[in-house]
Design brief:
- The protein folds into two domains: about 1-80, no CATH class; about 80-130.
- The chain is globular, with a radius of gyration of 16 Å.
- The chain has a two-stranded antiparallel ribbon.
- It has five helices and two strands, in the order ββααααα.
- The chain has helices at about 15-30, 35-45, 50-75, 80-100, 105-125, and strands spanning about 1-5, 10.
- The chain is mainly alpha-helical.
């Protein structure tokens, strides 16, 4: 498929993207992490999309996964609303500031910061740190 974004044509294999997004959604819904740590590498590395397309597109894709997973967790009564309120305030502020910071720095630097954060997350999940 050819994506026309800001007057630039970008080729992407949407079948591979859809299959990858399915597995990211299943994993993030099961384990509670946002799909971003996997959706962004899927879209940049596997599909070869530029970062300026990936950021907004991955967030929109993750939104629908998040809505579905949240509704199921509400149904199963596994939500702590006090914790949610605290986290939501921080998330709104971070969601407002993040894009403003990202548009002012190099896309390569954004990718490098993402790699460092993913490695830190991986080491913590493996129990090697933190």
């Amino acid at each position: 498929m050819i994506i026309n974004f800001w007057g630039r044509e970008i080729k992407a294999n949407v079948v591979v993207g859809a299959i990858g997004a399915f597995f990211v959604a299943v994993a993030s819904s099961m384990f509670g992490f946002g799909g971003g740590p996997f959706m962004v590498p899927l879209m940049t590395v596997v599909l070869g999309l530029p970062m300026y397309v990936v950021v907004g597109s991955s967030l929109l894709a993750i939104l629908f996964n998040t809505l579905m997973a949240t509704s199921k967790n509400l149904f199963f009564e596994t939500v702590d609303f006090k914790l949610f309120a605290i986290m939501a305030i921080a998330a709104v502020i971070g969601g407002y500031l993040g894009p403003q910071i990202a548009k002012r720095i190099s896309p390569v630097l954004v990718k490098r910061v993402a790699v460092v954060l993913l490695l830190a997350l991986a080491t913590q999940l493996f129990g090697w740190w933190g």
